[in-house]
Predict the structure.
Amino acid sequence: MKKIYILLIILLAIIMVIYGNIAIKTNKSISYINIYLEISNITETKIQENNVYFSSPSNNQIKGSTMIRNDKDKDKKVKIVAEGQLAENNWLEISEDSFKIKPQETKSIEITINIPQEAEGNYSSRLRIESR
């Protein structure tokens, strides 16, 4: 439980610092967050630009959230698409993947990675955040 709590805090802090306010600046915008997971006995998180690297043991859960903000003067439709191995294995969950966001509104999105007991090796995924 302590590892999950630590990972939650780390993921939340990382995502908030780096991607805390994804501002929608054009009529059509696409942003990416790359997620890399190494199954390991070491629990670690590292960030480089739009890349988030996790080391975690199997049979664990990583939780965090990010904020999405519409800084335009009209409503925007936002769609979040999970791609890659974590998504294909159904390990990656997004609390809300399609929504409207009003002008100057900020919305919190929860992200969870569920790592099964039998997991080993390295995995990756990408979150594609589209707005129109």
User: Anything to note?
Assistant: The two ends are 40 Å apart (CA to CA). Residues 3 and 43 are 7 Å apart (CA to CA). The domain at 2-131 is CATH 2.60.40 (Immunoglobulin-like).
